[in-house]
Each structure stands twice: as structure tokens, then as C-alpha cells.
Amino acid sequence: MEFTEKDERLVELLTEAGLNKNIAKVLVYLSKVGETVSRDIERAANLRQPEVSIAMKELKEMGWVKDREIKKKGKGRPLKSYKLTLDLKDIVAELVRKKREEIQKLEKDLEELEKLVGLK
């Protein structure tokens, strides 16, 4: 599955909101497919395996992704399957809330700075 223009724009906006670009790509892809394995993410998001692993580690730390092992037939390591724990809407709402809090703090700090130097 390829990324559409809308998907690319979503990745761009998530990145501008403070997410790492690889994390944004993984989030958008997972929101479209539901559950998938690392190799599919690599192909669709045009990422290398280590980039997907790093993104997944961070997404799990944020509580936005969970994984499970899928046993393979025969020998070899089991595959890991990944899935979002929240809707993309909820993740975006969380990001927006945090950014708005940062903006409010910055505005307060700028006002204090202006007062301290006599601009206001």
C-alpha cells in the first residue's frame, strides 16, 4: 500500500507538531492498516529495518503501539506484529493539547521578558 498525498501531508504536519518523521510515517501507516508486521511498514513507509525498530520502541514508550509475537512455521525467530493502542484522532488530540500548552507557556514567558526589559 502506497502513501497518498493526504498521508504525506499528515506525516509533514505531525513532524511539524514535533514528532520524528519516521515515527509520523509509522503512525500514519498503522492507522491505515490496523495491524501489520515490520517488513510491511519498511516497504510502505520507505524505511530501513533499524528505523522501524527505533520508531516502534519510542511509540511503545509513549503507549501508542503494542506488539505481539506471531509464531512462524518451522525454525526462525517469531515475527512481531504491531498495532496502535489509540485511534489516530486521539493521538493527534494529545499532540495538539501538548503543543497548545507549550505555546501558552512560551507566550507567558515572552510577556514576562517584555516586562522585565521595559517593553510593556
From TrEMBL:
Residues 15-72 form the Transcription regulator TrmB N-terminal domain. It holds the Pfam family TrmB. Transmembrane segments: none annotated. Residues 89-116 form a coiled coil. Keywords: Coiled coil. InterPro entries: Tscrpt_reg_TrmB_N, UCP037373_trxn_reg, WH-like_DNA-bd_sf, WH_DNA-bd_sf. This is Transcriptional regulator, TrmB. The keyword Glycosyltransferase does not apply.
